[in-house]
Amino acid sequence: MIEVPDLSFAALAPLLFVLGAACVGVLVEAFWPRDTRHPVQVAVALVGTVGAFVSTLLLAGTREVTAGGALAIDGAGLFLQATVAGLGALSLLLFAERSLDPARSAFVVSAAVPAGSPRDRELLTVPRVQTEVYPLASFAIGGMMLFVTANDLLIMFVALEVLSLPLYLISGLARRRRLLSQEAAVKYFLLGAFASAFFLYGLALVYGATGSVRLADIRAASVAEGTDLLLVLGLALLVVGLLFKASVAPFHTWTPDVYQGAPTPVTAFMAACTKVAAFGAILRLLYVAFGTAEWTWRPLVYGVAIVSMVVGAVLGLTQTDLKRMLAYSSIAHAGFLLTGVIGLGAGGEGSGLAATMFYLLTYGLTTLGAFAVLTLVRDGDGEATHLSQWAGLGARSPLVAAVMTLFLLALAGIPLTAGFTGKFAVFRAAIENGAWPLAVVALLASAVAAFFYLRVIVLMYFSPPAGAETGQGPTVGVPGLPTTIVLAITATATLALGIVPGSVLDLAEQAARFVG
Q: What angle separates helix 322-342 from helix 294-316, to the nearest 10 degrees?
């Protein structure tokens, strides 16, 4: 007799909101008239993400295993779900930035038109977009929210694919530089397939060693069996698959090309939301399934963290394109996040878990704001992303330069910004857990990485404006309402979480106490 799994619809409400909005978006795409489809799609997607965010707040304090034990709705899962939903809603606003000037639209009118063809050039002036990006992004957000609450490896793999496949598609939908965008999508897809294969093979090995894919059963088996080679190999492959999605060196090779080639709102979405989802899965896997067998994963994470920090900081110095620079910044920050992962369970209070969740929130807000500013500085070929085009921006547009300076200082970890508070939290957690050498390396890498952030600030304020001699320099656009909302929220949060972070830090610590 087949037993019907228990389902708590209240606990599943955040997922139901987002995935329900995605399904409605598909129906709108099929039946709604094209001329009025765009605002409807934006509204449906925002209702889904905002509804999911509010649902996670209403579920605060819940600790429940549902869907036949496949999902764990706990403090950490709800905190990360709220982070993904909030950042996802802000990302969708960036997607929706579109004025009467078609040059402001990031997305292609029709993805089926060959790049560079006469029809493609003709469509550059059409004020319309490929509205499928909204249900695709909603499916990706739903996959991310499922990813951070998955309680067994099979559900985790399904969530990995649900969040990845839409990203492969929307990465290739840039209105301009379409060949570069499509190349980025293909690279992302091919390397993502390898990562999925690593994860699936690791899943098979762990199942072979423990006889279960449930995280709690794996934890019990790891305690009972100790140094089982099959289990250790399976864990290594699982972690490799997740580190790829988190863009951690040496599994980062897709990141600079995809960040540069994808439409900038999509890049912002990936940089903020995918990072949260990937590290949420890493935290759950290591904390719940292998928390009592730290010897199996600490050396791997220790080494990868150092490599990621060094690669991100050093190679970021050589970049002349802002999107590629922010890609290497993302790789360096992945290393800093792993510093917090090393501190899991420090002092028996889960301070590393809380610190890493807080860092994910601050990094997501800051990097989303930085990419939002990036969409405002434009030349005849779209966004002006070369460093030389940002010279003298402080004189041309003081407000835009000031907001970008705030985000860059936060990414560098300067005091009174959210970035400083986040780094301080993860470094302290690592030191409390005895990983002070890793914290020292992280401090040195932060100092190196600060150089390429400060280089942009110096260019903006202490260099003559780009194109001043010819009068053909880049222009600074006036943000529409969606981008203005994003900039206002991210800039305010970056300052608030740097000056008065106590309440959010306490919330993260409370969430970390209710896991598993």
A: 160
